[in-house]
Every structure is written in structure tokens, then in C-alpha cells.
Records
---
Amino acid sequence: MMVIHNLIAGYFNRNVTPMINGYIKRGSILTVVGSNGVGKSTFLKTLAGLLPPNSGNLEFLKVEKPRIIGYLPQKKNIDCYFPVTVFDVVAMGCWPRINFLKRINDEQKYLIWKALKKVKLLNLMHRCVHSLSGGEFQRMLFARILVQQAQFILLDEPLQGIDQETCEIFLSSINQMSQYGCTIVIVLHDNQFASKYLVYDTLLLTQSNSIWIKSKTNRC
Ligand SMILES: Nc1ncnc2c1ncn2[C@@H]1O[C@H](COP(=O)(O)OP(=O)(O)OP(=O)(O)O)[C@@H](O)[C@H]1O
């Protein structure tokens, strides 16, 4: 379980989010919603450890501290012109598990292949990432998450620019990962669609307040 205590996320000394208190149970799904600019991505980056909290703290119960955190950023935060292929980007999901000097083994290659198949990108695996469409790019990032097999997964608008069929594939994979015990936090603009596939709690952020809405289903 992650405990969030009096957390204010922001940049340098500029506070962005309101004060947030709550906890995220292992194996649960939390959606983060709110209007543009309210601090959803900033909150996610703070959970990922990419930004230090401006105040308050985040704490994992010791036994549950995840070794690997999976993070799917928004496309605008990624350099799409870096000369790498789709396979290379998805293979980065293996990096936390392999020695820097070692090559990817057959088991890991199979994992990458399975992830690319799941998101329907097998035919584009040797393409340079700068030539992908927005939706293909998002599918590639999701495949990397699948390969990572992290216990704590943070997804920043994973459904952005994705067609309905692919949304269903993503949401059912997210569901499966949570059933295997992964804890998942997802920033969404519209969580109505997701509610058809997932059972989740919601953190609603406003300029002045944060409201933690518990799921009606008692899942944990
Ligand atoms: N690197 C940064 N440095 C300073 N301020 C930033 C930085 N990134 C974002 N901000 C500001 O922080 C605020 C919250 O941004 P954030 O991206 O977290 O909002 P959001 O709720 O995810 O918005 P959206 O729904 O538009 O994606 C905005 O006012 C934004 O301009």
C-alpha cells in the first residue's frame, strides 16, 4: 500500500496540486481526473519519483516498495526524433532486469514479441519511431509497459488518440495486470469509457481540493 500524506506536488517552489491525502492499495486501480492544468501529470510524476513533493510525503509500506516503476508519459514529453526503432523502445522495458553489458535473452525477446503482438505492432517493429502515427506511438509505449512487468504502473492518458478496439485491448490488459497484483494509477480525461472495463477508485483534482472517490465494489 502507498500512503499519501499532505502531499502538494509542483515545480520548484510553485505549488500545482491542492493538498492530497489518501492511500493506494496493492492491486488496486486509481484513476486521476480533473480539468486541464489542475496537476494530474504533475501528481503522476511525483508518484514516479521524477519530481520531489513540494510538501508532504509518499510512503510505501516497507515490504511492498516496488523495485520497478512503470511510467507511460504523455507523448509531448518524449523526444520522438531520437533514431530508434519500435523494437528498441519496447525492449527498453527489459532494461531494469538485465545487466548493462548483457544482451536480451530469448525469453525476453519472446516477451517483447508477445507485447508487440498484443498491441498490433508486429509489422512495424523495425520502423523508426519518428515515422509512427500518434496512435501507433501510444501503442508502442503501452507495449513497453507490458514488457516491464512492474508492480507499480503509472499511465498518463494512455488512451489518448487510440481507437476503440485498441482502448479495449489496453483496458483489458490493465485489468489483468491489476488482477496479478499490480497497482495502477491512470490519468484519464473521460473515465466513463474505462468504467465499462475496470473497477477503480477515483482521485478528482480541482484547483482548491482533492476528492478521493472510493469504488462502490469492495474489491480489495
Ligand atoms: N515543467 C514544468 N515547469 C513548470 N510548470 C509546469 C511544468 N509542467 C507543467 N507545468 C504547469 O503545471 C500545471 C499543471 O500541469 P499538468 O501537466 O500537471 O496538468 P494536467 O492536469 O495534467 O493538464 P492536462 O489535462 O492539460 O494534461 C500547469 O499550469 C502547467 O503549465
---
Amino acid sequence: MIYEEDKPIIEVKDFSLYMNNIVVLKSINLRLYNNESVLIYGERNSGKSALLRAFVHLNEELFSNVYGKGDIKYRGKDVREQEKKYLRSNITYTEPQYLQNLNFISLKELLKVSLGISPHALSYDHISLLKKLDLMNKFVDLKSLKYYNDLSNWSSADKLSLLIFISLARNPNIFMFDSILDHIDDVLLKKIKDVISDINQNRVLIFATRNLFRYLDICNRIIVLKEGKIIFDSTPKEFIINFKQDKFRNL
Ligand SMILES: Nc1ncnc2c1ncn2[C@@H]1O[C@H](COP(=O)(O)OP(=O)(O)OP(=O)(O)O)[C@@H](O)[C@H]1O
């Protein structure tokens, strides 16, 4: 099927999510289009992660007693009806917990599981991405890779860059970064922003955060969640006007 490009890539219709019989997302309506860079902003527990995980049908896997009502469609088809492997290769979700997970996997295994390749099979594009993320020194001497039995001795910054590399190298249609860039220094943030901004057309970028101002420069749309509801959805310019008028005093 050829998908018409002016149609939403993600379409959420009247979607509510319940966990342990508590409603955590309330009647969400949302359309995401190609080439949007979307900031999802909200205080702790506002539902940012729950919403992004719902796009890849992940809440049900992580938690018990999860129930969704309403629709979430990826390219016109309900995400619950799509093969998970297909869905998750087209929509990548990266969250801080994955940094912990890197302590229990070797680099070789990680490349195999996430990209289906061995360290010796990195392509030219992979290598140029690794260079941009200052990771190439870790890969230069392929023999030394055997020492990376696990990645626990890597710095947090290098682990994060590696996660970004994996996410970008998978070349999905939708990138979802959940709070992942919130705690890094400005130099690395700038480097990662430059690499992310370089991604070609036909993609959607989503950043979920409690750190609004870190991302304003790379987003063209801001969605504010509060207690599981969307309370704002417009441009950064509109957001600043509302912000100045103290409309978000209670956030
Ligand atoms: N397993 C669970 N059972 C019941 N409620 C849960 C469960 N996991 C999360 N919640 C609730 O779902 C709501 C949304 O949580 P979520 O993690 O999506 O918020 P968030 O905005 O991403 O928060 P943070 O900024 O802290 O990451 C919260 O009220 C949280 O307490």
C-alpha cells in the first residue's frame, strides 16, 4: 500500500489508558505528521512515557493490568494489529532505563540484537555516525572489542551516545527519546542535537521531557500533558506567549 504523505503518521483518537484500574491517559486526540519535531512536556507522572509506550504497544509488556480504550494508528492501521517487530523497527523508543540495561550486554551482542550485524560489518554510514558521536575510538581496534564483555565500564555519556547511535542506525520512521537527553552536559547535547537535526526528511522526532528549554531550538511543535490530558498543543512561539502570560503557572 502506498501511504499518502499528507496523512498523519500517527493518529490517536479518544485514547485512554488504565493501569491497575487508574486512568493514566485521558481521551487523548493527536495527529503526528512527517517532518515534525515534537516536544512532549509535562511534570512527573503526567503520562509522557505512558503515551509514547502506547505508540509501540509497550505498556502491556512492562506492566500488568493495563487496558487501553480508543484508537492509536500507525500509518492508518491500529498498532495493536501490527506485528510488533515491524512496529518497533519503524518506531524506536529510547528511555534512560536502557542505559542500565547496557551494563548487562556486550557490545557485540548489542549490535547483533539491535542492528543484526557484527562489529566487523559496520557500514560507511555507521562509521560516519560513530565519528559524529565521538564513539569511533571505541570501535577503531576491532580486536579490543572482545574486552567489552559488558559496557558497565563505559562512561554514561558514551553509553548515551551509543544508544543514540543504535536508534539512528536503525533508521526508523519515528524516533522517540524519552527523557534521555535531560541530564547530559551542554557540549554533548549540542553534538547529539546536530546529529539528530541532520536526519533526512520523512521522519518524526519526539522528545519527552520535564526540561522544556533544552529542546525548544529543535522542536516545531509543543504538546503539554498534565495529569494524563493534553492541555496545550501548538508551536513553540505560541507556547512562549502563553508561558509569558503565566498560563502554565501550575505546571
Ligand atoms: N505500573 C503502574 N501501575 C499503576 N500506575 C502506573 C504504573 N506505571 C505508571 N503509572 C502511573 O501512570 C502515570 C503516568 O506515568 P508516566 O511514567 O507515563 O509519567 P511521566 O510523565 O513519563 O513521568 P516522568 O517524568 O516521571 O517520567 C503516573 O501517575 C504513574 O504513577
